[in-house]
Amino acid sequence: MKKIIVRIQVLVFAILSLTACSDFLEKDVTGESDANDYYDTKYKLQSALNAVYDVLQSDEFTECEYRFGDPTADDVWGGDEGLGSQMGQLVNFRFDTNNEWIRRRWEINYKGIHRVNQVIANAHKVQLSTTDYSEYKEVREILGQAKFLRAFFYFNLVKTYGGVPIRPEVEDVNNLVIPRSSVEDVYAYIEKDLREAAIMLPARYLGNDCGKASEGAAVALLMKVLMYQAVPGEQSEKWAEMVRLGDFFVSGVPMTFEEILQYDSEEEDWEALRVRLWFKPKAENGETDPYETPQTQLPSLNTSYTLKYTDYYGKNFTYIDQFFQDGEFCSSSIFEIVYKESADGTDGDTNEGGFIYDELYSSSPRMWTTSDIITEIFGSDPRRSYILGHQEYTPDGDLCQCGPGKYVSLKWYTPMKERPQYGGDNGKNRRVIRFPEVVLMYAEALNECGNGMAALEQLNKCKAQANTINNSSTLYIGGGYGYMRDQIWKERRIEMCFEWDRFFDLVRQKRAASVIKTYGSKRANKRGYYFREGVNEIFPIPQSEIDVSNGVVTQNPGY
Fold first, then answer.
1. 44/41 Cα distance (integer angstroms)
2. Which residue pairs from 278-286 have beta carbons closer than 8 angstroms and sit at least 24 positions apart in sequence?
3. What is the phi/psi pair of residue 549, to 5°?
4. Burial of 535 (0-12, 13-18, 19+ CB in 10 A)
């Protein structure tokens, strides 16, 4: 997809000269207004939403996503492991509460939350020009995307720091210090946003709207949020609900609004909910307009996404192409962050995704893959030659210059033909949620609920698609609970490797300490060896937040 520069200038609170990209963000909206009447049109509300997407596109957000997801675990190593740098202290678990990356991850996610709260809190101010159903739908979709994005930011925070402050949608300038909520309350808040987003959004966006968060994104992230709350080997309603969502997403079993919302009429009247979520009021509903009830079925997802390597027009491409420009918004991509090329090579707005590009081609990259990945994980798996590059030609014909004993992930690699004109830019989007992950989460939940044969079927769907690379016939075989769980985790590590989730996967699997400390014992600098079980599964609250709150925001144990 063509990368487009878009500038949106609004004077609303702290939002100034904001940028976002993809065709759905092409509209220029320029003006000055106070907070009381700024949000009176859907176009202004869209401008505020664009500012939220802008946070995702920032280099700072991208850097934090990578640094906490991969280098802190056992999949990669790099040239910045020395204790003299803030990054080196982070990956060695030798950091203190003033570590800049711990602070920056906190700040960038709360920046996104602040912006998205403006959208959600002020959506009711929009004045519609007509009573057409389409106008309600447009505002509802803006609000639904906002709820997804807020859930995404809070999910980043809770899995990184544990319980965090839940910021009110309307800030009280006289009471800006908010104490931490419990982990359980934060997750409940996230779930509510995602459940509501799921009924407010279309199954997926295509064409010029690619890049918007969809129903598919909301349901997929909800499954992941449930998985992070469940404990492997322990019965939980979270696992059972993941199965129900997987039945809907993967197998096509219908699901109603009531079922995904877990709607309780005693908590909220349905007509009040309709108004709050911008469904057209019953009194204004025409014969040809849909009228949603608790029994209304969600738009089907199992026909919208596939494991096949095709674009949404049906064009086939190779496995690795799904991570290049030709594979943007392909049939297996559920949500991805759209990056762009700048018009003049400047990076003052720092949202060209340059971090991804620079990391691979810098003099001291932080993206070398570990030898264990090559020998113990991939082995003869057909994805190996598509994902790992070493002094060899890539599938598109480029020579990947790595150096002795160094391998890079081709998921991060940008082919010569796609490299941006300016070095501070990035040539491709970041894939955040893909359909294979949904299938593997479904398989894991089935196994946890005692249905190993059904889990095996889903697991082999992923493997069978990978086998099409070289016509391999190798599949996983059935076994007991533990055996199946280990196979699912192995397939997850292969298929989802280098997508910035490894550390958090180990934590929720309850094996971060053993894996990371074992990995550290093999490294010359003992990277990861100092991981403290029961402490380092979450990171400390930034000391600056503790200080500014005068102790209202408390520190995590062990720090």
1. 5
2. 278/123, 278/136, 278/139, 278/140, 278/143, 278/200, 279/136, 279/140, 280/131, 280/133, 280/136, 284/131, 285/133, 286/133
3. -85, -5
4. middle
Q: Cβ distance 432 to 336 under 8 Å? A: yes
Exposure string over 294-309, b if 16+ CB within 10 A, otherwise e: eeeebeebeebbebeb
Only one residue has tokens 């002094």, namely: 391
Q: Contact at 8 Å (CB) between 153 and 112?
A: yes
HEC assignment per residue over 384-439: HHHHEECCEECCCCCEECCCCCCCEECCCCCCHHHCCCCCCCCCCCEEEEEHHHHH
- Blockwise average pLDDT, block size 10, the chain, 559 residues: 33 34 41 63 95 92 91 82 87 95 98 97 91 88 98 98 96 87 98 98 94 98 98 97 98 97 95 92 65 93 92 83 88 90 55 59 60 81 80 61 71 73 68 97 98 98 94 94 97 94 97 93 81 97 96 96
Q: Which of 344, 315, 240, 288 is nearest to 132 (CA)?
A: 288
Helix 59-69 to helix 42-57 angle (10° resolution) is 50
Coil, strand or helix at 15: strand
DSSP 294: T
Contact between 447 and 484 (Cβ < 8 Å): yes
Q: Are strands 30-32 and 333-337 parallel, antiparallel or unpaired?
A: unpaired
Confidence (pTM): 0.91
Residue 465: phi and psi, rounded to 5, are -70, -40
